Amino acid sequence: MMQKPAHTLRLYDTMTAQKRDFAPQNPQNVTLYVCGPTVYNYAHIGNARPVVAFDVLFRLLRDQFGPNCVVYARNITDIDDKIIAKSVQSGEPIAQLTARFADIYRQDMAKLNALAPNYEPKATDYVAAMIEIIAQLLQKAHAYRTETGVWFHVPSMPTYGALSKRNLHELEAGARVDLEPEKRHPGDFALWKAAKPGEPAWDSPFGPGRPGWHIECSAMIGAVLGQTIDIHAGGHDLIFPHHENEIAQSHCANHAPLAQYWLHNGFLSIDSEKMSKSIGNVLLVHDLLKHYKGETIRAAMLSAHYRQPLDWTDQLLTQAQAGLDRLYGALQRLAPIDADPAAQAEEVRAALADDLNTPRAMGALFGLATEANRATENAQLAEIKGKMLDAGGLLGLLSEAPNAWFQASDDLDIAQIERLMEARGAARAAKNWPAADQLRSELTALGVEVLDGPQGAVWRRIGR
Ligand SMILES: [Zn+2]
User: Fold this and answer.
1) 214 CA distance to ligand 1 middle (Å)
2) The last residue of a domain, from among 379, 405, 431
3) For the residues 341-347, what does the mean pLDDT come to?
4) 5 inside domain
5) What integer best gives the mean pLDDT of the chain?
6) What share of the chain is helix, strand, coil (3-state, %, to 5)?
7) How far apart are the CA of 377 and the centre of ligand 1, in A?
8) pTM: predicted TM-score of the whole model, two decimal places
9) In the chain, how many domains are there?
10) Which of 80, 183, 187, 257 could be stapled to 154 by a disulfide with Cβ–Cβ 3.0 to 4.6 Å?
11) Closest by CA position to 49, among listed 236, 323, 231, 286
């Protein structure tokens, strides 16, 4: 029997522009879709923000509805103009290039403690489903053919623009110089791009070609999760045109809404500037992971509410690391105590249920660390430790053993440190204090500090 969650999950829905109680269509099968990467390059830190934010949502849903009752799909776009260009430029075949970067993406996101989605559909595996939707849209007069492909006709859908709150006149006025003279309306977008020489192409009833980007998500959502899903999420920059166009395609083909809740994460800037190739401030997750632990990057990400803009700085990472050191320090002191497995971090749970308020949740977690440092009773310590681990599980933090957290480093000679620790232990056991002090100095010189406790001595990296 499923226990009723103590805190009702409320989510801010972009479509209705308000926080709403979350009620899935079927609590046994809660569906979540997040638009995934186009795999031709390393993911930058802005790409990682929705992955981490909506991983917290995934964890929360699994906690509330049961781990087997939540289905999360995140797609991989493996055909696209940029992929083709990169393949031509590097000579690496498209299939090899996209498989390689999809693997790197999975590894980097796993290092941020993001759980793997249940499904990771690849666009090229669903071209038949895309063709089927396009055929339906043509048949229902929501689309038309030209020399260059098949286009969705935006004025054919009276509610087009509902998500991004734009109307057709604004679209017309805001349209840039039109490079596609065959389009009937400036807002019309490509469903199918007719084959160009040298480009990969699939056969279709409307001639050889390849799908447009938006139709990929509509087809994969329908094939993997169903016509109407519970939650569709992604970056704020996808609201228009990508999500608006996904809605148009799916709604007009199925006469059913695409999603019940639309969630969008805010922008990420670097040192107050927009991340861009021209400025040269593009920060790759792959590179950051060479200098910081994945959990540190994740904690930095979660220090801001997902809908707020986040300015990424070195200071943010330093603070995140210091905060995690504090939490792991408390857990290290609690090492001899067995955690109470039934303890729940109510304040953390309440904060996360309120539209994933991670800054408030992290604040409550730090409060538990403070309590841990003050408490003396074993039963109390066991409860606090249980609550800290409960909160860590929901936030995707505190997944390491405390000693491993403090010891991890590329530039330390672990074997030598362990030898000196052992020799020092022997010197102390023999009450040879000058030798023990000498060994402690040698350890300090290697960059580690020694902490003596009732369970023996442990070491940690200085400054961690
Ligand atoms: Zn999408």
Assistant:
1) 6
2) 405
3) 96
4) no
5) 93
6) 50, 15, 35
7) 52
8) 0.90
9) 3
10) 187
11) 236
